[in-house]
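During the no-cost extension, the postdoctoral fellow (Dr. R.K.) reprocessed legacy sequence entries with the updated structure-token encoder. One reprocessed record is reproduced below for audit purposes.
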Amino acid sequence: MRPLAVIGNVNVDLIVGPVAPWPKAGTETVVDHDELRVGGQAGNTGLAWQALGVDFAIAANVGDDQFGRWLREAFGWRAEKWPVRPEGTTLSVGMTHPDGERTFLTTRGHLPRFSLGDVLSVLDGSALSGGYALLSGSFLTDDLTREYDAFFDWADGHGIAVALDTGWPIDGWTEANCAATRAWLSRCALALFNEVETVTLAGAQSPVEAAREIRSSMRKGATFVVKRGPQGAIAIGPDGTLVEAAAPGVRVVDTIGAGDVFNAAFLAALAREEPLSACLRAATQIASRAISTLPRNYGGPMQSRESTHERA
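Re-encoded structure tokens follow.
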């Protein structure tokens, strides 16, 4: 199995809900559910890998408070080298809604001060050679984002294929954010975006058309994956082949972090050198299980999946 790593945002999530309608100012709303848990794109991916029995490395930083210590404890020895910042740990309050949507209120906290130096203090480039590194939370990790070119140079120098999932920009897909994302993607071997992000970034209505258009400016042999929620997922593979996977019908309980779980399962299957169709199928099945269970369940250690139908 090829080595795996995730780099980016690990923070605290406080999930409450469901909330409907949006509360009026000055009022109090009683909700049925609350959960304090490890969050952030990188954090969610790491937790999924742990549950799936997959070996991995994770590079992150934390704030200098009880939340920071708690986050480090969640990842044990993998977090021993995480830098501790003097800022408070980033906290994200997620309010769920009956229709499955959610609203986040997030503090800046420690995440903007996550740097390339922090990454290199944690990861062993030689140990990751020939593997995959998922870069996540791009619009939250300001210091690292400014050094992305140097990060890509480091990854190239160690033969590490970079996968990118930027997450949604805080100020939306502005012209500057689109340009920056396309520049990052030009150096990536793999993109893992949701459907809204994909069509918005490409300025196209069709997710297939949008994926093909964006992939055309990526590295030769790159793969572009589009996460489509209840509609499953599609991917444009290294040879330009379109691959699709349907998602099983489930009763949705909590969609927070669903895309990150998908990323984890997809990359785990890819690291096993399974066909692209099997990677998509594993990712959709495991993400569907995760969003339909409370407490969250990933199905135990990951096994090889059968390939699904591929077509041009």
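The two ends are 28 Å apart (CA to CA). Residues 305-312 have pLDDT under 50 and may be disordered. The remaining legacy entries will be reprocessed before the final report is submitted.
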